[in-house]
Write a structure and sequence with these properties.
The chain has 136 residues and is mainly β. The protein has 1 helix and 8 strands.
Amino acid sequence: MKTVLLVSLLLLATSHCNNNKPTNPILGQYELVGHDASGRLALSGTISFVSLEQNHLKGQCKIIREQNAPEGLYESEGNCEALIDGNTISLDSAPFFDDAGLLLEGEFDGVTIRGIWKMDGFVTRPGGKFEAVKKM
């Protein structure tokens, strides 16, 4: 009887430990701000990374066009995807379109993603700098 109880407790403890998988620190919600080359606010929004498979992040993005945004930057809300290589992240706000959307390329430091943003179109145009800070 003691053996059965001991084995049962060990199995329960083992299954409980296996269910507590650590999540990747990149997953979560971020507040996004982007400035043009002159330093004026051009875009804002949110990024929410919900899954990571291998080096492919999937999530939801909401991009808000600010007053100083360049022509061609449209407000959008929906699926977004990113590739991650070490601390480098390349995000596409419109992954299902060949030439539309906002591209973000930056570095993740554990809390913040910083880098440059570009407008994807027939010709990809540089936009400015962005920062996406993780909400805790």
